[in-house]
Amino acid sequence: MQYVLIYAAGGLLYGLIEILWRGWTHWSMVLCGGLCFLVMYLISGLPLCLMKKCVLSSAAICTAEFYTGCLVNLRLGWNVWNYADRPLNVLGQICPLYSLFWFGLSIPGVWLGRTVRQKLAARQTQ
Questions:
Q1: Nearest in space to 18 (alpha carbons), one of 32, 39, 38
Q2: Which residue of 9, 46, 60, 77 has the smallest Cβ count within 10 Å?
Q3: In degrees rounded to 5, what are phi and psi of residue 94?
Q4: Higher model confidence: residue 126 or residue 32?
Q5: Pure H helices in 45-91
């Protein structure tokens, strides 16, 4: 049940970030965002330094974004986003600029994951 709540919270938070960033979101991004936060939550529990956790989180987000984009944009033609105009993009679905943004968002994401993990652990010991 814990992972379902983490997934749902991450999806809602990601959707909110997208609405604030570009003015709208798509339900597929809420699903992708939930997966991304769940993975960040799991990474936050690893015995690694913050930098390594953020690199792993950014890589996971880029991977999720790439596969989601291949499905919703290229296969289904929904045109949720397109980075084709960005330098060094891969099939218009990911690009270095947004990979850097994901790294930056991984810092508060990993912190939030660690904080939630600590709160849940403290609650279980009560």
A1: 32
A2: 77
A3: -140, 160
A4: 32
A5: 50-69
